[in-house]
Amino acid sequence: MLRARPKGRPKATDVELVDVVVGAPDAGHVRVENLVMSVEPYMRGRMGGEATYAEPYPIGEPMLAPTVGRVTASADDTVPVGALVLHERGWREHALVPASECRIVAHDDLPPVVHLGLLGIPGMTAWIGAERIARIETGDVVFVSSAAGAVGSTVVQIAKLRGATVIASAGSREKAALARDLGADIAFDYHDGRVTDLLRDALAQVGASGLDVYFDNVGGDHLEAAIRVINDHARIALCGMISIYNAETPLPGPSNLIKLIWRRARMEGFLLRDHLDARGEFEAQMATWIRMGAIRPVHTEFAGGVAGAWDAFLGMLDGTATGKAVVPLGTLGAGTHGGNDSLDKEANR
Amino acid sequence: MLRARPKGRPKATDVELVDVVVGAPDAGHVRVENLVMSVEPYMRGRMGGEATYAEPYPIGEPMLAPTVGRVTASADDTVPVGALVLHERGWREHALVPASECRIVAHDDLPPVVHLGLLGIPGMTAWIGAERIARIETGDVVFVSSAAGAVGSTVVQIAKLRGATVIASAGSREKAALARDLGADIAFDYHDGRVTDLLRDALAQVGASGLDVYFDNVGGDHLEAAIRVINDHARIALCGMISIYNAETPLPGPSNLIKLIWRRARMEGFLLRDHLDARGEFEAQMATWIRMGAIRPVHTEFAGGVAGAWDAFLGMLDGTATGKAVVPLGTLGAGTHGGNDSLDKEANR
């Protein structure tokens, strides 16, 4: 449960692990045994009190997280017992969920984690950003930051499938190596120098004069460095700015925005919620790519079950994860809190 | 003639006024008596040596400027003597111009200055920015900076014709009053406070919660203030950043670009050169508006003819002009340099 709104880096005392009774579902609800939950950067924003693009999580309630689970009791005809569902009531082992907030997953033969990753929010975010916002085409030179992250690792692979040349930035040599494994033509660890210099070197190595697309997951110096080398009619898809999520005072923005005029470039922010009409098209395309082996799932499983989820969240913020950061829960979680019999158990308060 | 590349604010010694013989046109050329020339902010960039979006003006040659003149001698069948033409060889009273670089103006019953203003670069820039980039629609709340300038004063009027609510920023009380005369619902002098506060007050006065469109002619604090109050799916058309043209070191950019993500907003730079296909549509629409009296030409005529053109350019950069800044030349110029008989006269060097 969220107990306090974090200032700067979140602390363990901002949340509390509690035992509660999870009873039978009321009419129109189902009970779900959660199998795996997601931890994502945007959660940091929703823990804060300032309204950003989503409602803050209320104090004194369990937080939300995209979660895949199996329905164990149902009081709604549309979501039967045994169904594999995606819902938002994570950060707990068992959840009572309105049936209207459950989505029975398509392609339920794929591993549960795929529904949080490639077929979930980060996968669809990558796809919308690449296809609808940046509109990556054959021959484009594409720069992707946070390229070993859940979104970035998918963008790298989509861009290669689309016939682009891909330059990747990541936060360690291991992550840069992963980006190369996923198909990036060049990948660097941004700790190895100024991003501007690393990017110029990378462009020289691929024989390109500039960028047609920058897929921005971090903001800050990456964004300024990218703007410095955009080609005419470049597209910058603003997906995230993890570099500033923990900043307590505003950081100055790029000093070279005038290049957006000289290069007639477009910079556009986007959120998945505006593109839900594309879900069917996206799922069909992505599931095909996964089954073909054309796109590889990349994820990090944090151990400890629900008791370990907070550390998993902090680890994800600190960049220790590659690909989608997930926490197996319940019978899938190594350190299950209370085990299956916590269901219907008396609260120890 | 350009003699030196300006550092910071341009100086009189950066240019030199010289007398030269203008002879008969070679084959494929015409001789034009210039009637009126334009001074524009982008010229500052082309005087500098750094490649921006246009070639620098060469040192030791006359600079270029959009100019309207009457053909006085022709060695090309396509451009006859007597034609009113638009060309780039301004900063001089008579010019030899390749016929291929002359455009015979449509709507030549309108005053010559209109072909440099509403029907010229600034008018078409305003129209492209409003119609193709910002896509202003009925009901939009539109913020325009430099609203008494050549582009801004036209955007204000187009936005009102499209049914938008218009908030205008200008550089003096007189200019703000002009913007209100042109139809702006609210107009402020940005010297009267912080732009952020002035803009918030303006929004409150028109009963709006935020901006759907910001048409940016200045960059800097105006851009940051506008981003602070954008609505979902806002469009920011980047047209110019006059606030930084004279800066010798880069100024920090807006610190709140992350709002482009939260608000799913688009920020896009543009240059007229990519939209020349629209000229016919634009001219027909704008000429109709002018003849209907729906859009009013706004311009400042600087005196002194070609000898006064440099001071006119500096005055325009300093913001002393309202609307399109022009310099009448030759028989139209008050202080004609050498008069008509400078044609074919020996150079006094």
Automatic annotation (TrEMBL), chains A, B:
Keywords: Oxidoreductase
Domain named Enoyl reductase (ER): residues: 8-327
Pfam families from the UniProt entry: ADH_N_2, ADH_zinc_N
SMART domains named in the record: PKS_ER (SM00829)
Gene3D superfamilies, A to Z: Medium-chain alcohol dehydrogenases, catalytic domain, NAD(P)-binding Rossmann-like Domain
Domain of life: Bacteria
PANTHER family recorded: PROSTAGLANDIN REDUCTASE, PROSTAGLANDIN REDUCTASE 1
Name of the featured protein: NADP-dependent oxidoreductase
Organism per entry: Rhodococcus zopfii
Phylogenetic placement of the source organism: Bacteria, Bacillati, Actinomycetota, Actinomycetes, Mycobacteriales
